[in-house]
Each structure stands twice: as structure tokens, then as C-alpha cells.
Specification:
The structure holds two protein chains of two kinds. By secondary structure, chain A is an alpha+beta fold. Chain A has one domain: RNA polymerase II/Efflux pump adaptor protein, barrel-sandwich hybrid domain (OB fold (Dihydrolipoamide Acetyltransferase, E2P), Beta Barrel). Chain A has three helices and nine strands, in the order βββαβββββαβα. In chain A, the strands form two sheets. Chain A has a six-stranded antiparallel sheet with strand order 1-2-3-9-8-5. The radius of gyration of chain A is 13 Å and the shape is globular. By secondary structure, chain B is α+β, with helices and mostly antiparallel strands. Among the domains of chain B are: 132 residues, Probable tRNA modification gtpase trme, domain 1 (Gyrase A, domain 2); 74 residues, Beta Barrel (Elongation Factor Tu (Ef-tu), domain 3), CATH 2.40.30.110. Chain B is built from seven helices and 20 strands. In chain B, the strands form four sheets. Chain B has a six-stranded mixed sheet with strand order 11-12-13-10-4-14. A six-stranded antiparallel β-barrel of chain B has the order 15-18-17-16-19-20. Chain B is globular. The chains are: A alpha+beta, B alpha+beta. At the A-B interface, β4 and β6 of A face α6 of B.
Chain lengths: 125, 356
């Protein structure tokens, strides 16, 4: 399973990429492999204020709907609209074109609570 | 540790890298590669499912036929030896305890194939109502493994000729005694094969070598839902009767006496409050799921019992119990998903029709 070293992770299988004051968020390769066949993605609206661990997106496989959580407190500044016509990008390119949303974070210190690649690898065994 | 049971094919699933989930008290494969791949293999070629978790009862004795006909809704007098039928086991209120297939395997000998999660309940119910002096009832579930082999190319998996639809035969394949029934839960041509538990891995691998794709419960669910075959526990329950589920075809009201008969007769004559309908989503949106609300003109009229994205049709499909006055083909309904309403339309069953 691919777990890039330069990303941060949550226990709920989101990945986080730091981009200045913003973070880009998606679901991990492990998560997409567990879900298989993503058929629908609902992303949050721009300018929405979100709290850490708030469910703000939904990824649906054939079998079930899974909530995706904001990793930290912030404001939605971008969301991947391409997923409405091509939800399978979450499967084929989870760390790239399958990204879900970008948050402007309130406090960079909040990122300290997230897992690094080694800790996430350990979690998924 | 988990208390779920493992089928005799459990280690084969693990070897193939299946994702395993608990289902009806068993550890079962939900998929090996992907639900969509497995679904398509069954529609286009042939797929194989482990159904070892399903229960098998043998009913025999001089009173077996007459007694069983008072326990089940369909008419087993219509079965010749070697033939089976879909039928229901009901409680006194006409509610569905289980849906099952009853095969007549001798003049006064029957094989019942029941749902995994209902084995104990069915057995207790039947045993409690049994005429003990002239009916024997044996739970043989632990003795057998089973697979469903389904798809247009199923006949290519066997050297021997397959029995006609809904019939069951005993054969020997590679030295293994098996019972093969021409039936299934996918809408494709197919068989369900039962074998001794110790032969399970050998039989499974033989059919894989012949080109079948291993398929999990995920594809089993999407395939059956495209055909609007009900799933007990979702679309059927002890609070629902076969008439409101639209399955009156499998109820023989000309039989004078069977459990639940009066309720069903009344339901058929006077109608039911709700009906199980099939629907498809109209336009883009999330797939429907169980328990989503169904609305007509902003009034809640029912609830989804099964829903998915149909891999064959590529849109959301489902079944729902809704108030009978609205249960007409072509009626526009709304499905409430996460607080938002999405349009859908009531469709004729089955939702998927095979191209011929």
C-alpha cells in the first residue's frame, strides 16, 4: 500500500498535504482499496467553516456511504468538482487527481495532532 | 475474539485476498477484486459465490409432505421428485420468518435451503410445529458446503448435463458426490451446488480452474437487487407479509390450511397499507441506501429497504415500502439523502432486463 512520506494522516484515513497556509485533503490508498469502486463523491461548499473531525464530505462505494472528516479547524477554499463526473479518480489516483478539498487552516499548530507516514503505516498494518 | 463461524471455503477466500466481513453470524467474503468487476463477470461470463453459510434441513417421514404444506406458502404438491420451488415460512400474523427453496428429493423427502441468519430460528419454529410421530426434521447445515455458480456460460463449467430450471440432481464430479440445483439469485442462468464439507476446497478450485471468477457478497447483493429479488432482513421481515412484498405468486391460497393463510387471504382481497416497489434514481445523485425516506409531494410515504448503484445500469436503484395509493409504476417520488431530496421514479420489476 502506498503511504507517501511527505504527507500527514488521520486515524480515519484522510491524507493531508501542507500548501502554505492551506492543506489539501484526500483519502488514502488504503482507504480507497477498502472501499473499492467509488461511485459518488460529495464535496463541501467553498467558504464553509469547519471544525476538526466534522464530517464534511461523503465518499460512496457500491456498498456504502463513508463520511470524510475535516482533519483540523479551518475554512473550505476549494473542492474537487471533477469528482462529480469522475468519482473513480479517488480509486485511480487517491493522492493526486482524487483529492477532495482544500482548507485554509486556523492554526498551524493543530497539524501537530496528525500522524506522520510511519505512524499511519503502523495503524494500517 | 469474534464468534463468527468460518465456512469450509474460508481459507480459499483468504488465499485469494478477499475482504472478509461478518454476515449472518459468518465470516464471508464481500469482494475479492471489486464488486463491479465481480458483478460484470456474472452478467457476461460466469462467477462463483460461497453459499456454505446457508442452511440445509431434510424433512422426511410418512407425514412429511402433508405437514410441510401447512408450514409453507407455496404448494409442494405441485413438485415432482427432483423439483424445487421458492416459498415462505410465515408466523401466525402472516409475517415472513424466512424465504427459502424447498426441493422434493423423494416421495416423502424434502430439502429446505434457508438463509444463514435464520437457521436456528427456522429450525426451532419447524421443530415446535412438527407432527413428531410421522415427520423427521434434521438440520444438516454443518455437513454441507455450497457454491452458487452463475452466469451465461455456467454450462461450460460442467461435463455433465445440468438439470432443467428449478430441478436438482445428484452427480459425481471428480469423485465428489454433489447435488446440483438449477437456480440462483442473480437473474442469470446458474446452479447452486452442495457438497460434503471436506470436498469444498477441491470443488471450489476445480470450478475456478474452469474459468469462473470468485465473487463476494457485494456482487451477490447488487445482482439480486437489479432483479428485485428480496433480501430477508432488509426487504422481508416478520412484520411484512408476502402480499405486500409483491410476492403473492409464491403463495397458494387454494391450499386450505397453512400458517398465516387468513392474513394473506385478507391482504390479497382488501389490499395492504404499503407495498414493496422498485425505483430508479432520475438524474445524477448519490445512490439510495436502506432507511432513506421516500416522499411524494413533500409528504413522507415510506422508506427504502435496499439500494445501490447498479453496476449494469449505472444509476441508483432500490426497493422501498411505500403507502399503497402511491405504489404505481411511473409515479415520481423523492428520496431523502442527507437532508436533501433527489428525484426517482417507480419502475416495473425487475429493474434489469437481460438483452436477448
Amino acid at each position: 500500500m502506498n503511504v507517501p512520506d511527505d504527507l500527514l494522516y488521520t486515524e480515519s484515513h484522510e491524507w493531508i498535504k501542507r500548501e502554505g497556509d492551506n492543506i489539501r485533503v484526500g483519502i488514502t490508498d488504503h482507504a480507497q482499496a477498502e472501499l473499492t469502486d467509488v461511485v459518488f463523491v460529495e464535496v463541501p461548499k467553498k467558504d464553509r467553516q469547519v471544525n476538526a473531525k466534522e464530517a464534511i464530505a461523503v465518499v460512496e462505494s457500491v456498498k456504502a456511504a463513508s463520511d470524510i472528516y475535516a482533519p483540523v479547524k479551518g475554512t473550505v477554499v476549494d473542492a474537487n468538482q471533477e469528482l462529480s463526473s469522475n468519482p473513480a479518480l479517488v480509486n485511480t489516483d487517491p493522492f493526486g487527481k482524487g483529492w477532495l478539498f482544500v482548507l485554509k487552516i486556523d492554526n498551524a499548530d493543530d497539524l501537530k495532532s496528525l500522524k506522520d507516514a510511519a505512524a499511519y503505516k503502523q495503524q494500517i498494518g | 475474539m469474534s464468534e463468527e463461524k468460518k465456512t469450509p471455503l474460508y481459507h480459499e477466500h483468504v488465499k485469494l485476498g478477499a475482504k472478509i466481513i461478518p454476515f449472518g453470524g459468518w465470516l464471508m467474503p464481500v469482494h475479492y477484486t471489486s464488486i463491479v468487476d465481480e458483478h460484470r463477470a456474472v452478467r457476461a461470463n460466469v462467477g462463483m459465490f460461497d453459499i456454505s453459510h446457508m442452511g440445509q434441513f431434510v424433512v422426511s417421514g410418512s407425514g412429511a409432505r402433508a405437514w410441510l404444506n401447512t408450514m409453507l406458502t407455496n404448494n409442494i404438491d405441485k413438485l415432482e421428485v427432483g423439483q424445487g420451488q421458492y416459498t415462505f415460512l410465515l408466523n401466525e400474523r402472516g409475517g415472513i420468518i424466512d424465504d427459502l427453496i424447498a426441493y422434493r428429493i423423494g416421495e416423502e423427502k424434502f430439502l429446505l435451503v434457508v438463509n444463514a441468519a435464520r437457521v436456528d430460528e427456522d429450525f426451532d419454529w419447524l421443530d415446535r410445529h412438527r407432527a413428531k410421530e410421522d415427520v423427521d426434521l434434521a438440520n444438516r447445515s454443518a455437513d454441507f458446503g455450497g457454491v452458487a455458480i452463475q452466469g451465461p456460460n455456467v454450462a461450460k463449467m460442467f461435463d455433465a448435463e445440468l438439470p432443467p430450471r428449478n430441478h436438482i440432481v445428484d452427480l459425481t464430479i471428480d469423485g465428489m458426490p454433489v447435488s446440483i440445483a438449477r437456480t440462483g439469485y442473480t437473474g442469470e442462468d446458474g446452479v447452486e451446488v452442495f457438497f460434503r464439507a471436506q470436498d469444498a476446497a477441491k470443488f471450489w478450485n476445480l470450478i475456478l480452474q474452469r474459468g469462473a471468477k470468485a465473487c463476494g457478497l457485494g456482487a451477490r447483493d447488487t445482482l439480486r437487487l437489479e432483479m428485485c429479488y428480496p433480501l430477508n432482513g432488509s426487504d422481508l421481515s416478520p412484520e411484512r407479509n408476502p402480499i405486500e412484498a409483491g410476492l403473492g405468486f409464491f403463495v397458494d391460497l387454494t391450499k386450505e390450511n397453512f400458517t398465516g393463510r387468513d392474513v394473506l387471504s385478507n391482504a390479497k382481497q382488501n389490499g395492504t397499507k404499503q407495498k414493496l416497489i422498485a425505483f430508479r434514481m432520475d438524474g445524477k445523485g448519490p445512490p439510495p441506501r436502506p432507511h432513506y425516506g421516500v416522499f411524494v409531494n413533500d409528504a413522507r410515504v415510506g422508506e427504502v429497504t435496499s439500494g445501490t448503484l447498479s453496476p449494469s445500469l449505472n444509476y441508483g436503484i432500490g426497493m422501498a415500502y411505500i403507502d399503497a395509493p402511491h405504489a404505481k409504476i411511473g409515479t415520481k417520488i423523492d428520496i431523502e439523502i442527507r437532508g436533501q431530496k433527489f428525484p426517482a421514479v417507480i419502475e416495473k420489476k425487475p429493474l434489469y432486463k437481460k438483452k436477448t
